[in-house]
Please model this.
Amino acid sequence: MGAARRAIAERLRDLRRAAAERVIAWSKSRHGPDVGVVTVSRRRVYILPTRLGLAYAAMLFAMLLAGLNYANNLALALTFLLAAGGWVAMHQCHHNLVGLKVGPAGTRAPFAGDDAEFAFTLSAPSPRADLVLKAGARAAHAVSLDAGQTASAAVVVPTTRRGRVRLARLRIESTFPLGLFTAWTWIHGELECLVYPRPAPRGREGPPPDAEPGAAHDGRAVGEEDFAGLRNFRSGDPPRRIAWKAWARGGELVVKEYVGAARAPIVLDLAAAGGRDLEARLALLARWIVDAEERGDRYGLRLPDGELPPGTGLPHRNRCLARLATFALPANDP
Amino acid sequence: MKRAPGIERLMVTGSALTVALLPHVGHLPLWISTAFAGALGWRLLAEQRGWALPPRGVRAAAALAATLAVLAGYRTLNGLDAGSALLSVMASLKVLETRAPRDHAVLVFVGYLLCLSTLLYEQSLARLGYVLVAAWLLTAALARVHRPVEANSEVRPFRVAARMLALGLPLAAVLFLFVPRIEGRFWALPSATPRHTTGIDEEMSPGDVAQLGLSDEPAFRAWFDGAPPPPEERYWRVLVLEDFDGRKWRRATSGADFASPEVVAGGPSYRYRVVLEPTQREWLAGLDTVTEWPAAIARRSRATTLTHVEPRLGERLPVTSTLEYALRSSTMARVMPGSLPADLARRDARLPEGRSPRTRALASELRAASHDPREFIERVLERFRREPFEYTLEPPPLGAEPVDEFLFGTRQGFCEHYASAFAVLMRAAGIPTRVVTGYQGGELNAYGGYLLVRQSSAHAWDEVWLAGSGWVRVDPTAAVAPERIRRGSAASALGDSATRALFTDYPWLARAREVWDAAHTRAYDALVHFDPVRQQRLLDLLGLGERSWQGLAIALTVGFALAALALAAWLAWELRPRRRDALAAAWDAACARLGALGLPRAPAEGPLDYTRRVAAARPALAPAVTALGEAYVAARYWPGATPADAARFQALARALRARLRAARP
Model:
């Protein structure tokens, strides 16, 4: 009995999923894959009453019957006003999405197991309220826009392993103003985000390699460098190099530069990382990269299929991690 | 400190619901109102202190108990009274467990239904206004609850709700005008228990009333085809009292059925329409001798007695909402001039044995001195005029023999005292006499074109039957206080109370009141009395009158489509792209002008890059263009930019435009 019911429920769920897939495929065939900034046109905004909207309609019908039954014109007037309010709400709900401009604004690669973040910019020529971005079942915070204002919002997609994660479509929906209707649109973006291998737990595997024997990489090494001057801050500069005192005096954010960083760069080699399998070794390599960056070392990466010259800074770290993310991925792996 | 969103939502929903429930407090059992207030208070505290809400089992038990209590109290769950009680109970219970938006929505819906039942109880414009405010607050509560919790914009649910309802008005008007009304009810429900009654009492006992309450409330309004009768003819009959026990006058309970009375019309005939305010009683008002009743009312009344016993809607059909009916009346008709059936003559000349001895003695004395009944009536009225009788609304109470004490003792009273004493004198002399109660007077509202009769115009007078003339109206109060009859109001005959003095001293105030009453009456008439007949009249006006159902369908569809289109257009206009700021517009214009020289700006080209490129290509323009680009960057991006920078850029842009224009061949 229970099993039979479960089977029916499962079958129903499958049917619903299949129907939803068909609708989405149909919508995609109408608008095609979306590239770059998309202006949401009238014909790609869909709207349906919510459950609350249906309950509201049922209540209005009951009120209509009561008003007619008692031949009570004022009761009818109230009913009609509420019905008209619902109609206006439908228009406002629909208008809330039409004319919206949506563009991808980059991704933030996570370590495997964390959420990948897909950012979007939203702007509209007129004010908008309570737009909710959704990827699958997960909703982002609601966004409201003033006329001409650009705001960004991000949706997150869960990840399990390194590689790439794909966002096939973005759903933007709104139940503004009363929650009686839900209007939505699909942006069929086909966006991808890298997923870095999760660094191995600290201290569990062997020590970071000394690529060049004799080269010290303790804290003193930094102090031995010669101060060469200040330059403007660029994103990715390690915080410890920022001249905080200069900044505190009310100046701009500047970074101390040194010459003669005598310490030789280290090279992190996959071959040097021991482990059960490739994934474990990549995890260890990721740990080394993260640690080296934190220490402010100059480090390079050596993989069987190529080499990254030594460098430092966040962009360099991310380049290295990206190489690990895509290293030896099966061709058809997303 | 910011309040938690939970408590703010609860407060918005709770106060809107309270506003919706308030009009019902008067007729709800005390325990329901108390339970609601308690539940709301507890829920707010629980939200603030983070108490747990009652578990499911407790709530279910409470719901069952409350439903049974309502059932026990009203013996039904059907109908308006029990229905609103049940709604209020449900609201209280729902408040206890309100947490999710869905719960709030249920509360808002209950609030809407309470608004509806407020109007079902009583249709008045004041109530409609109140209910619209309540509906606005409820809609705002719905808007507040259905925003995503973390919405980052300013919350303005009250504005959103007001705008929504305002934009819906034209659509609502179309629906109101063209949704077909039906005649009669398709589901009979017990009507609400009548609350306080107003208007003319069914009994009259002058000795027991120490002070006559006079209210300025309207009793009814009458629209006349042509001129209304002169003030002294404005006698509106409501009830006829024929049984007297020495103290109290009552409606006849015996010998009421007799053949259709003979009416000989005479004098002017008036056609008019009456709109009666609800009285919670069955009685209607009509001018003097009503010669034509609407068929619907005649059917329900004692048809044979219409013209001169009181008309009424019928047993158990009190006037609970305003009632409109059309009549024809004659002010000088003779009713039953030929003969009075013997049993009626006996009944209407009967006096209780052994009561009012001095009055009887006076009657036989005066009757003996008179040749005929008419002279006798004249002598009695003369006595009222000559003796020191006083018209007052605060007479001393009377004892065991009220008529004797009034005639020979206190000599102070109002219309009821005089009508009663006069009738006793007449009956003592063997003349069939009855007391008629109703209204005397009516103010003509010049703006609305109707006569407004207030409760303060309530009056009592007599009718005597004289051979050859039939029933003749005699108003003894007129003999004592002619002022009362001329001014048409008991109150204004007796000096003025503070509020009335206000209207006398400031005529513009009285005029303002008149305008307000006319406007209110007109709006009320248009809204509340919009029935199938008027709907049909409207269709005729639109040329769709032939086939009423199809006509309505066409009007409804077309009207709704037009209103919806107008709404869509309005919203589209409202959401049109807003103008960009003047600076950006001027920059775009300058770029377009330079672009026309064959040097269009690339989409990704910054201002400085672009002007540098133009300057290189057109050395003649170089200084102007370079300055323009730098001014734009300064005005737009410099952190310390002031309006002066924008003005400088605008000036440079204008100069460049002039130069380019001059250079054109």
In short: Chain A has two domains: 31-195, 219-225+260-326. Helices of chain A lie at 2-31, 51-69, 73-95, 219-223, 244-248, 278-295, 314-326.
